[in-house]
Amino acid sequence: MDRVRAVTLKYITVFLAMNFSFVAGAALYGAYLRSRGLSLTEMAFVDGVYVGVSLMFMAMGGGFSDKYGRRKSLCYGLALQGFGFLTYGLSENFYQFLLAELLFALGSALNLNSLEAWYVDEMRVLTGEKYYDYSRVFGTASALTALTSVSGSLLAGWLGMFSLNVPFLFGALAYFMLVFVVYKLLSENKGESSRQPLLVILRKGCKNVVGNKVLLLLAFSSLFLSLSRPFFTLTYQAYLYDLGLSAQTLGVFAALFLLTNSLSGLTVVPKKSFKKLAYMTLSSTLLVFVGYFGLSNHYDLTFFVLYAVLWEMGTGMRRPLFRAWMNLDVSSDRSTTLSFLSILGFAGTLVGMLTMGPVAVSYTHLTLPTN
Questions:
Q1: Three-state SS at 27
Q2: In a 3-state reduction of DSSP, which class is residue 235?
Q3: Can you say how many angstroms the Cα of residue 109 is from the centroid of all Cα atoms in its chain?
Q4: How much is the pLDDT for 100?
């Protein structure tokens, strides 16, 4: 039991450190790009590069993780993300931001599912149980990100008073430090087919998804929700920035939304009951719908914040549930399989990012509220 607790603690520690590094650097992302003169269409394109590059290399990143080791993949990925944030902090124009996003995306492709795969496979070896209650661990980790998200957002708001690029420079330093933490803290583990060629591992991961109806259902449901996500995440901060809110106030609102998203994960700790799984999934999806409906019909700042909180509650509730459910149905080569599952979600996000800009220009009231 002590070893189980130790592995869980290591997972949560690294998970929180990764969250803090990202939030502290990117909490003012929308405002920073806006301050550099980027239009909504350009902002969506920059963010779309992240999703597009991730789509191209996500499966390869998962295969690399399974073949060469999850710890090694995490270290390389975190280093690339650090260089991405460093480039962000030094960027002045649209094309430099594209380069920064490219570096960050390559890093994300390597470590997107590596930590989760490391933890679940370590737990299966230690407990010998296939159906461990991962939703409880994932929900707890998600809730604890309230601490790192709020502290990171407030720190970014304070650093942003000096300059909006300073948070990115701090985030780069945090990522570089995290590389050494991961190397020292985590043991190495690999996928079941690590001795096979990379292409064989990729083929097995793809078959794991295509041959499992539950995984396909979860993946396609994520596709549609991911399609709509950019219409909130890429517009809310630009809206608040255009209202003239200060960097500190933007940090406070970012902290509020991230806090809501994080704490909502605690509500998703279902017992082994299909009815409760279905109920919680439906409830979280309905909250997301109500949030979007309210944001598209209420332009007052107070109502905007209210419905944004409902949106964050819905997305926060469903994430631990979906991740736990997916892991329970993955049979082998976890990083690769999870990467193939993530491809549909990222594809939906990419389409949403590429269409958000033109929609915002043509139908501003549907995406970006105006007074």
A1: coil
A2: coil
A3: 12
A4: 93
Question: Does pTM surpass 0.70?
Answer: yes
Q: Which residue has the tokens 């995290």?
A: 178
| Residue with tokens 């948070």, as numbered in its chain | 167
At residue 271, does pLDDT exceed 70?
no
User: In sequence order, which residues have a C-beta less than 8 Å from that of residue 353 and are 6 or more positions away?
Assistant: 44, 45, 47, 48, 51, 230, 234
